[in-house]
User: Fold these one by one.
Assistant:
Number 1:
Amino acid sequence: MRRVVHLSDIHFGRATPVLVSATLDAVRRIDPHLVAVSGDLTQRARRRQFREARAFLDKLPSPKLIVPGNHDVPLYNVLERFLDPLGNYRRFITRNLRPVHLDSEMAVVGLNTTRSLTIKDGTIRPTDLRHACDALMRAGTDVVKIAVAHHPFEYPDDASIPRQKAAAMRALAALARAGTDVFLTGHLHVSYAGHTAARYKIAGRTAVVVEAGTATSTRGRGEANSFNVLHVEPDTISVERWQWQPGAGTFAVVDIQVFDRSSHGWNPRPAEPSAVDVSGESL
């Protein structure tokens, strides 16, 4: 079994110190086999914010797999945005924009979905997609395969950017053919765990979709600060949502969803009476 902590949208520049400290404490207690960070490490891609993000990452357990988000590309520095959009990210976080983590039980690939020509949307370059799919296929069939990206692989049905929507669906289909079992994303600042049959029209195989809220920033969009913990086994994946408990001054599990492997991918296990209440105490 593998434990994966999924953090996203930590937004240094809008991060709250008490939440930063509590997140570090919680992740250390969990003692994960991998920490996956799905983008938006900063609010405005400034050097000071990247230094703060670097200090935070250095305090997290290793190994870590990190991808950038749209906020990690400069917004107001137009010259830097187009000539070296991820310069500060590479300087302070990592030069590896195609990260891969492999062990005996899982294969995890990271995808860079940031673009200079759009402020908040994103797509995957064909070369990056091929690299990720090749890594997943080389990993064989005995491991659980996970793809990490900042942007969810969907656009609204009435999207005014049909080409980006079509590109996202092609990427999703390619990753599904490569055997992806789990998609970890962020960007929306809203927690979600489900399967692809409920979100995407991809025939033949379903995967688990997990989106993370923000654990550390003030940009909660009406949802409490949170992050995810996945317990990954060959035929079962449990997704826990760890939510901030202001009264207790800590994060605690408030929701657990379980997915079981079938011949057509992954399906949600029927809900059972919750064993955890919103205070994080066992019932």
Number 2:
Amino acid sequence: MQKLAVKCWADMNSDFRNGTYCRMEWIKAQCKEYFLNGGREKYDKREQDIIVKMTLSSTRLSVKTQTHENELSCTKSESQDFFEQKISVLDVGSCYNPLSIDKAFDVTAIDLVPTAEGVYQCDFLNVAIGREKILSRETREIRQLPADFFDCVVFSLLLEYLPCPSQRYVCCRNAYDVLKSGGILIIVSPDSKHVGANAGLMKSWRYALSRMGFMRIKYEKLRHIHCLVFRKCACKDVAVRWSRLQHFSEADRRYMSETKIFIPQDFQVARSEEEQKKLEYEEDDLANVFSELPFDNEPQA
């Protein structure tokens, strides 16, 4: 997997002029833009503006607004310290810990079955989430992750390996729990089709994650991949507000769920044994037709 990522995929996605560069470079660029180049302050302000709109007519909710103003001001003061400290990243399903080579990041790399040095063993779907990180250095295993701790969680080509939509949801919920307020979840997911082919599924991701408390702040369809960034809102109602304002078409409604994250494979219909035999027969028949062509028996050059 490491050779595939650093040689084949990197070469295939190395054209910066067309925006089709390596997914890891995209991830690093989004982290730095958000934490080091004013991105977080921008979305702090956007969130605060939405809170004000939501609470103008209620005195009781104005108290709530003040609470979130305090939370956002804390987030802003923390962001000023990023020029002096590293961005804490949890890289889930990390094959070879690629982010660790960048000095801007303090990376905790985990995988179900790690094969590279620097990657800890951890079942992210079932790991305990508590007050602190508990790990075994002897077995390179993480037994507990700290809540509200990481600046960024990365799912790079991860969710599609989970066979069940509810497992993908749990994966995202755990990311929400370990992220700081104002932290970001970065998701990279494969898709070689054009940008509109699975637009309904991408909207369903936004819907499920907004109900959880995430605001989508970035989406790009690059060559062969979807790239998304979600922000953990200081005020969950700000994220939920988006889902309440949506009017989904009949076609899109089948994807919408508050507790499931769907991928295209979930909607593939398995062929019956009879259909499979028929398909094989048609393929054999087609091969026989080509064997009748006049050049079939010509000597090979």
Number 3:
Amino acid sequence: MDTSQWYLTAGVVLCAMAIAATLIRRLPLSTSMLYLPLSWALGPHGLHAIDLHIINDAGVIEQITKAIILISLFSAGLKMRLPITSRLWFLSLRLAFVSMVLTVALIALVGIFFFGLPPGIAILIGGILAPTDPVLASEVQIENPFQLGALRFGLTSEAGFNDGSAFPFVLLGLLLLTEPFNTSHLWRWFGLDFCWGTIAGILVGFGVAEAVGRYVLHLRTVHRQAIGLGFFLRPA
């Protein structure tokens, strides 16, 4: 399909899902369960309207995947209206880091000792499989920014954290596959990709959110501007 057909197809599908949102909430279904058969119907086995090759169209698939992940994580982040000092964040950190590291390690060990996989491939598979899916877990996440609870908040925040916390292990797996084993490479990965990447990502995320929130409040109170962005601001 050309660009105009892509936009038309995506627009029709999204409009139809938005109109049917009320009906879908009444049924024991999730939107993912509807998107799957729809994509099959539009694919090579159905109407052949969409025909993507996993290798030839890798660039297009990568961009589509990035957009889906960014939208999913951004929508999950908007629901977490808690200050950084809240104790509920400790639950999120335990799930996203302690549980994540253990899960990656267990998957890697199973791959190495039970399936005979090289360490690089085993760690890479662990980094890919360990994170939970923020899209598929949407049914048990926070439904609105003011709905707080340990279980729902933990799942929602962990869905936003886990991709970032699993990414260093994906890089480690790729490093072991592309470079010969070298202690200096491992130390560089640990210091740059794991420690610095994780800490900097958390600080930048909270810092940018705090700066934007304060700037919007300043525009509202001083200049009477930026009206209508209340959903992006956490309560004081």
Number 4:
Amino acid sequence: MSTLDIRVVDEPSVSSARWLAHRLRDAVRRRGSATLAVSGGSTAPPMFEALRSCDVPWHRTTIWQVDERVAPNGDPDRNAEQLGGLLARIRLMPVTSKDLRTAARRYAAGLPERFDVVHLGMGGDGHTASWPPGDRVVESSRAVEVIGEFNGRRRMTLTPMVVNAARSRLVLTVGASKAAMVERWFHSDTKIPIDRVRRDGTVVFLDQEAASRLPV
């Protein structure tokens, strides 16, 4: 069975940003451009802040969203509000559309054939992207789905099909509140959504607290 590449570090946001910058530079060197999908959540802004200080070929990088809350432009719930200052071309999910399912299909049509990197977080319930526990979105054969209300908002999200096709996946999660789910993921608990993430090519950055229940 494939194992996760787990890295327990003192500054996960900085270490993950440096790793991501290296992957984006490598993509540009190999293919002339870089494609990245990013999540929101509490761990994303510190990583984005660190990424701004890294050597990133922004003019050849395009960023898509992994998921987004259905909310008006400028709403603080929107993950889009975290992307200010990233100098890449940014393709926001069309969550203000009146016809969300048609908009999701159009967004899917504009995705790259294969992302260079997909960035993910993890919730205290084991969700990643907008894949709630028990939701059938993880079984979808479509690239982008619209789900029902989850933690107060409807969501648009990439599906496992797209996430797992990426050349690399970066998972960043920190804090003692995540330790139990990190342990369950490490032991391949199929009941939690993040276990749908492909292990090959996935790098996980943790702090000491999030890793506290893992085997030495």
